[in-house]
Amino acid sequence: MKELALFLNNFGIVLNQTTSLIIVLSIIFIFSLVVHFILHGLVLRAFERRAKSSQHLWLQIITENKLFQRLALTLQGIIVNIQAVLWLQKGSDISAILIIGAQLWIMLYSLLSLFSLLDVIYNFSQKLTFASNIPLKGIFQGVKLISAIVIGIMMISRIIGQSPAILISGLGAMAAVLMLVFKDPILGLVAGIQLSANRMLKLGDWLEMPKFGADGAVTDIGLTTVKVRNWDNTITTIPTYALVSDAFKNWSGMSQSGGRRIKRSINIDTTSIHFLSPQEQQRLINARLLKPYMDSRSKEIEEYNRTHNSDTLSVLNGRNMTNVGTFRVYLTEYLQNHPRIRKDMTLMVRQLAPGTEGLPLEIYAFTNTVAWLEYEAIQADIFEHIFAVIDEFGLRIHQSPTGNDIRSVAAQLTR
To answer: Is the CATH code 3.30.70.100 the one for domain 260-403?
Structure first.
């Protein structure tokens, strides 16, 4: 301000201190407006037009996240600070106020520029296959939180005119309180790093966590919560640290394998199990899927009985084919020939331990698709066929008595 007064005195213009201050502030204000117009009205507007018409993805992402706008505002704060140092008298109240205000502006928009830069990196990483599998959002949110705390301390220290070290040393006494307040973000940040490092979870994975009622696709992995869109379109939020401290099931391995497991049983009425009679064998040997087995099995049994001189007058002597064993072989062949069942994965039909519900016969196989609707249709088709053909083997499905069964028995008794 003194320099301006001396400069004007050379031309015979004498100004008092108040007038000089008004002129200097006007110069700073007008120059700031000119810089703002050039940056935002010309440069950034031209850049945005180019970004919209450009095929470069990074230009569009930068524009969407307002990175250059915030950098421009940071630059404007720096220019105001430089002008205040050059034009205003050092140590004056107005100089101190303007410089402190400009520095607070610079720190604030530097922080916002960092936020925009992290958003640009995150959005761009989601377009890359290898990076989209890493839960970067929680890590970036942790970096934002730490940066905001640091800048906040610096801004407060600048306002009160004290060193940031004094504030930080004072915060040491509040460490326990801060740990309590920021418990979830701290745990979430650590969990996010573990999820990323161990490749435990990524966006789009099918997550099942009954404790939190989650069963669906992961839509968001944040610093403190993970969002899961369940199959009924409800949204479940899970604390990020719970994915590390508790157990959960990730079905992504099934999706990547290309095969989804069928593991379902039918309960056979044990009173319907018996040895096959010659007539039943003759009927079943006409089945295309059973003919090779029936031929080889019959020869094997005949050879065994002849070698051991078995008396065939009693079924207790020698070996015989059972209807349930033949049915199990038939189901195995049926699955082997099914066009929607994977042959390179585990495929079997096995008996489980019998109980009050009969003899469980379990189908264990994998479909050649992981799509839910297709999988359910394939599984239903297989079991519909099983229920339709089981009578051909003289077997019955175990079923608890229904109201209709009770009425039929009562009708028989009243006749």
So the answer is: yes
